[in-house]
Design brief:
The protein is mainly beta. Helix content is 5%, strand content 49%. The strands form 4 sheets. Strands 2, 3, 6, 7, 9, 11, 13 and 15 form an 8-stranded antiparallel β-sheet that branches. The protein has a 6-stranded antiparallel β-sheet with strand order 4-5-8-14-10-12, with no helix packed on it.
Length: 257
């Protein structure tokens, strides 16, 4: 399958496409947690999960509300209460980065599967929510744009009740050449050489974000079906277009003439 560099990589590559060394800003595996659930294949029912006190946990540096030790992971939320996990400050971050993590939803029938993502302390995220799978981990990759040493990321259940989820392997890196599936972006964007209009062909409602090569968001909109969008306000040059549909994100490089 054809691959393209992620938005972070595209925005930071030189004209010679020289890869920068990867710097790890945060790498939390939650190996200190020895409860049940998640990595041991258990996703519901009466599990032995020691409660973690609300506030900052000394073992991980994460700040929690309604959190419990799982099997080398953390479970967030209860059947009747919304939970959240907030990373420590991303010390050493100055600019763009990539956030990767694994997450999966509690397996009961009425459990919501939308995981909310928030950023504080500076910067923006390429997506504000992702869709989890019940009873299994999925790996996600999200772009952090314009982050700072004060930046923190929040993982939060979708609603006040029945939004339980497991979280593991939260990592933030800079300068890495991550790859992203190119296929969906190619299908969504009909023309990659833009004049005054950009053409899209998508079945479902799709969020579109346009970034300049400094990683700055310069235009955002939504499209559905065969649709053309006025992009005459964009200056000439190269851009990275991020499309998000049904929780899946792809990027594509375009040129504005």
């Amino acid at each position: 399958m054809k691959k393209f560099y992620s938005l972070v990589a595209v925005a930071t590559l030189s004209a010679f496409s020289v890869a920068q060394a990867q710097e790890v800003i945060l790498n939390q595996t939650f190996d200190a947690y020895t409860g049940a659930g998640g990595n041991d294949g258990q996703w519901g029912g009466a599990l032995s999960q020691p409660a973690i006190s609300d506030g900052v946990d000394e073992a991980t540096g994460f700040e929690y509300i309604k959190a419990y030790q799982a099997s080398g992971a953390v479970k967030i939320g209860t059947g009747s209460a919304q939970g959240s996990a907030i990373t420590p400050k991303l010390a050493g971050l100055n600019g763009n980065a990539t956030l990767t993590f694994r997450a999966g939803a509690w397996s009961t029938n009425n459990e919501k599967t939308t995981l909310l993502l928030e950023i504080s302390g500076g910067g923006t995220l390429s997506v504000s929510e992702v869709e989890l799978t019940k009873g299994a981990f999925k790996e996600f990759s999200v772009n952090i744009i314009g982050g700072t040493s004060e930046t923190r990321i929040t993982f939060k259940g979708f609603q006040p009740a029945s939004s339980r989820f497991f979280l593991d392997d939260v990592k933030v890196t800079t300068g890495n050449l991550g790859t992203i599936d190119y296929t969906d972006a190619a299908k969504a964007i009909s023309n990659t050489l833009w004049t005054n209009t950009a053409s899209f062909n998508v079945k479902d409602k799709t969020a579109v974000e346009v970034y300049n090569m400094n990683g700055q968001l310069v235009k955002s909109f939504e499209v559905k079906g065969n649709q053309s969008v006025d992009v005459s306000s964009l200056v000439k040059g190269a851009y990275v277009v991020k499309t998000t549909v049904n929780g899946k994100t792809s990027t594509q490089k375009v040129v504005k003439k």
